[in-house]
Amino acid sequence: MITLVMLSGGLDSAYVLAKLLSETDDDIIAHHIHLITSTARHKPEAESCRKIVDFCQNEYRPFEYTFSTIDRRGYVYHGKDLISAAFEAGAISASYLMATGNHVNRWTVGISLEDNIPDVRFRNADKVCRSNCTKDDAPDLFLLDPISQQETIDYLPYNLYKMTWSCRIPQEGDDGSYSPCGDCGTCRRLNDL
C-alpha cells in the first residue's frame, strides 16, 4: 500500500504522518505544498516540515519527501487548502505512476475533531484529485478517525509536537524569525489547550 500524506507542517498532519509511520507498513510519500500567500506563512510551514521529516525519518523509518509550490500572493482570497492539496495529490499520484509504474493507493490530510469542514468539501477534494490524475485509478481520499487537538498533542513525542507550526498569520521578527500571531483561529484554539 502506497499512501500519500499531504504534510502542512501543522499539528494534525504531523500526527497523521507519525501514526502511519508507526502503526502501518505503508510505503509513505509525504508531500508539502509551499502555499505562498500574502501572509508569508509558507516560510515557517516549510521550516516545520523539514524538521518534522528529519525527525520522523530518524525516529520512525525512511519515507519519500517531496514538495511543490503554489503562489497566490496576487490574490486577496487564497482558496481552500484542502482543495489545493487535492489538486497536488492528483498530480503527484500521476507523476509517481509515470516515474515508477506504481500506483499511489490513497492520500490523506490531517484533520481534528475541532475542524468544521463540511463533508461536501471532502467529496469535492476527492473529485479534484481524480480530475487531476491521468489515469482512472486515482488514489482514494481517506481520513484517520479524527481526535481532539489535545489528544493529538498527547500522542506526539514532545519534540515532534514542538516542531509543528499552525499559525495562519505569522509575525516576522527583525531577525527574520517568525512567531505565531496569537489571534488567528488556529492560534486561539491551541492557546485554549
Please provide a brief summary of the model:
The protein has 193 residues and is of the alpha/beta class. Helices cover 44% and strands 17% of the residues. The protein is built from seven helices and seven strands.
Descriptive report:
The protein has helices at 11-23, 42-59, 81-100, 119-131, 149-155, 158-163, 185-191; strands at 2-6, 27-36, 64-71, 106-108, 140-141, 171-172, 178-179. The chain has 193 residues and is of the alpha/beta class. It has seven helices and seven strands. The longest helix has 20 residues, at 81-100. Helix 3 packs parallel to helix 4 (119-131). 44% of the residues lie in helices and 17% in strands. The protein starts with a strand and ends with a helix. The relative contact order is 0.20. A hairpin with a 5-residue loop joins strand 6 (171-172) and strand 7. A five-stranded parallel sheet has the order 3-2-1-4-5, with helices on both faces.
Order of helices and strands: EHEHEHEHEHHEEH
Cα distance spanning the termini = 35 Å
| Approximate helicity band | 40-55%
Quickly give the structural class: alpha/beta
Main beta sheet strand tally, sense and closure = 5 strands, parallel
**What strand order characterises the main sheet?**
3-2-1-4-5
Number of helices: 7
Mean pLDDT: 93
Rg from Cα:
16 Å
Q: Could you name the ranges where pLDDT drops below 50 across 5 or more consecutive residues?
A: none
Instruction: Give the percentage of residues in beta strands.
Output: 15-25%
Number of strands: 7
General shape: globular
